[in-house]
Amino acid sequence: MKSPDVFATRSWTTRRERKKRRLLRLAGYRDGRVIQKANMIAAMEELLEPGDRVCLEGNNQKQADFLSRMLAEVNPARIHSLHLLISVLSRPEHLDLFERKVANRVDFSFSGPQAVRLAEMVSDGRIQIGAIHTYLELFGRYFVDLTPDVSFIAADSADSAGNLYTGANTEETPVIAEATAFRDGLVVAQVNEISKSIPRVDIPGSWVDLIVVADRPYAIEPLFTRDPALITDVQILMAMLVIRGIYEKHSVRTLNHGIGFDTAAIELLLPTYGESLGLRGKICTHWVLNPHPTLIPAIESGWIESVHCFGSEVGMERYVAERPDIFFTGSDDSLRSNRAFSQVAGLYAADLFIGSTLQMDGQANSSTAIAGRIAGFGGAPNMGSDPHGRRHPTPAWLEMTSETGDQTRGRKLVVQLVQTFRDGMQPTFVETLDAVAVGRRPS
Amino acid sequence: MKSPDVFATRSWTTRRERKKRRLLRLAGYRDGRVIQKANMIAAMEELLEPGDRVCLEGNNQKQADFLSRMLAEVNPARIHSLHLLISVLSRPEHLDLFERKVANRVDFSFSGPQAVRLAEMVSDGRIQIGAIHTYLELFGRYFVDLTPDVSFIAADSADSAGNLYTGANTEETPVIAEATAFRDGLVVAQVNEISKSIPRVDIPGSWVDLIVVADRPYAIEPLFTRDPALITDVQILMAMLVIRGIYEKHSVRTLNHGIGFDTAAIELLLPTYGESLGLRGKICTHWVLNPHPTLIPAIESGWIESVHCFGSEVGMERYVAERPDIFFTGSDDSLRSNRAFSQVAGLYAADLFIGSTLQMDGQANSSTAIAGRIAGFGGAPNMGSDPHGRRHPTPAWLEMTSETGDQTRGRKLVVQLVQTFRDGMQPTFVETLDAVAVGRRPS
């Protein structure tokens, strides 16, 4: 079957040929898969091409920071107009890429620490934002219209066959590597060391093209290594209200907590206040959550059956290794986290999402976007949404049915913990979210 | 911190110890990871325990059918009360498991060919249905409250280190293996052969506990190897309406098609009717879809930029291998499909889902459940739902905005192709879906 306007002859292996050319240009810089760190900037100038779609592993925890620091130093006369794909714009050099005109476009999820500088650079026209996504949405696009040409990822170690060990911080490495490797993109991994053998294989060597031993171990951000003594009386009161008024009332067994003292207070009160209500085994048994230290009392007192994690938490490695009944771990005893599957679990398998927010309007719309900051979303709009596709009934989900008639279905519980006034007596409840004006601003 | 009622001493490695005991009991039946096929039934009686949560790889395409046939023959006096987790209850032996009382409970997604027998066995009380899920929902629960104790999976080949090659039919093997292996479950793979080396690694050997060479290659169901000449004039007319009235009108570039002649007609008309409208490059560029043969004319005439696949399609292996620019393939030239990630892409990254249905009511609620059949859902309620978490704007998505005011957002296009009357002049449009009565039936 031929249409009037067929492409009579064309190559169907252009991506594969381009990958071969990239690797050929690198011949002088690599020994098999291995590149020396001192050559990395020069190697990047050979392997990249202007306009490439480049995925850089970087989220609110693990960072391919050696590779991002090197990338920020390539010569913009040679490598420019990159389209950056990144979960979290969190490090200064991520924005230096745009300052130096190495990149000019970004698709991302969250930009916590760089939110103010990002807003300025968007105003100045130095960054074009494709879109701000939830993690799962961004990962989904890696298989559709945002497939990476080159990905820069991070792992603990590699063996001589290129197999990667990610230890407790597997996080989003598998989804990035898969989307890139199987569409003839180039996968470049920074590792802390190359070993004769690795404790387990997290990413098969046949998915990895190039490996560099970084100048220092990859950066990792602690999310919740804080002093529980800083939890306030008001937060304890709110936590009691949640346990009694929401978790007990709705029999919430599968859930995802946000990060911070508000939800940490709930975790800490389960073995005392929760126990006094006779709720052990009845609520909070299955979690989608990183290994927060504030979960320890509930785990030790037998409240928790399982925890699946997006990533790990600095300092929790030995505790997790000693509690394989609770966490997903490998035969090497370390956590196997997986950001993509934890987001799927949080979306579809959890009955409740609870978080905190900065502003809320009269219709309970909430936002963390306030004027002059573009922070983005992370996972909240994914896990904090009621997925229409969900079908399995649980008491918590069915309890939330508000429809009547033939078409009733359950609903996910979505809870926001806020106080009436934020720091500086800023009101939490507003007529119109700041986000409305932020969204209208031309970009 | 101690609560009044702590578990003073308990083991935190019960899952790991149980796995060790299972493997110890198998000592006489295995040589390293390898079990001989003649011993498989006896081996299953040693490795399984009554009440186990057992995941059996089986969907509308790939089947771990050697393992399901063997499982159906274990002695129910020893192995009983299994809780089966399976995407699609499609083979007779899947229901024989319940007939013989080896299993008594099932969580699943779809039961096409066995829908009538399933409905009977539920009525008779021989099967308890936990829930009927979408694929992504079921996969999510594997990391929360339905983590498998034992998984039976299928691959093309294994090497001596236990690494698995799945060829074009990777499908759901990775998500099952990950959920099981990293919570000290047992992963058992049937393979077509054991080779000295495999073309690529799809599942690392350190995730796989036991391997058996099956009596014949794993079963694989062709989904769409049919004669396009059977497409009717009405289907061609409907396809033209869709191209002109929906895809052109809304600039639909990223999409998922259902299976069948209705949507095949659309695919076939792109290079002719679509070309005559000047739509090449403007619609239908990025697909989430198996490699349907009816996509070939659109691919050959330059309409399609990429296709990510849930699974493969029998007979399309060589075509896919010759078109790596379009499909996700490995260095061995064969497809890397991935059901979990394709469902994520279909949910979050696609602008349109189009399918067919059996009944529709006045509010456009639709269902394929009719009296006396429990077919389930597959992926449709997932990909055919508007995900609240989605944030990235595309023309197709923004076009669907119906809200006004500050909180406007886009919406996924969900299209059902139906004719007014089905076979036997059964009306498609009904006052009340049969599914309402089916849902009310006590089970």
Could you tell me the number of beta strands of chain A?
Answer: 19
Name of the CATH class of the largest domain in chain A = Alpha Beta
The helix content of chain A, as a percent range, equals 25-40%
What amount of the residues of chain A lies in strands? 15-25%
- Shape by Cα distribution of chain A: globular
Count of folded domains of chain A: 2
Contiguous low-pLDDT stretches of chain A (5 residues minimum) are: 1-6
How would you state the average pLDDT of chain A, rounded? 92
Largest sheet of chain A: 10 strands, mixed
Explained architecture:
2 copies of one chain form a homodimer. Chain A has helices spanning 14-25, 40-47, 65-71, 92-99, 115-123, 135-142, 173-181, 233-250, 261-276, 296-300, 317-321, 339-349, 380-383, 395-399, 434-440, and strands at residues 30-31, 34-35, 53-56, 62-63, 82-88, 103-110, 128-132, 150-158, 164-165, 186-194, 210-213, 219-220, 254-257, 286-288, 306-308, 352-356, 359-360, 366-367, 413-417. Chain A is of the alpha/beta class. Chain A folds into 2 domains: 13-220, Glutaconate Coenzyme A-transferase (3-Layer(aba) Sandwich), CATH 3.40.1080.10; 228-440, Glutaconate Coenzyme A-transferase (3-Layer(aba) Sandwich). In chain A, helix 8 (233-250) packs across helix 9 (261-276). The longest helix of chain A is centred in the middle third of the chain and has 18 residues, at 233-250. Chain A is globular and about 70 Å long. Chains A and B meet through helix 1, strand 7, helix 6, helix 7 and helix 9 of A and helix 1, strand 7, helix 6, helix 7 and helix 9 of B.
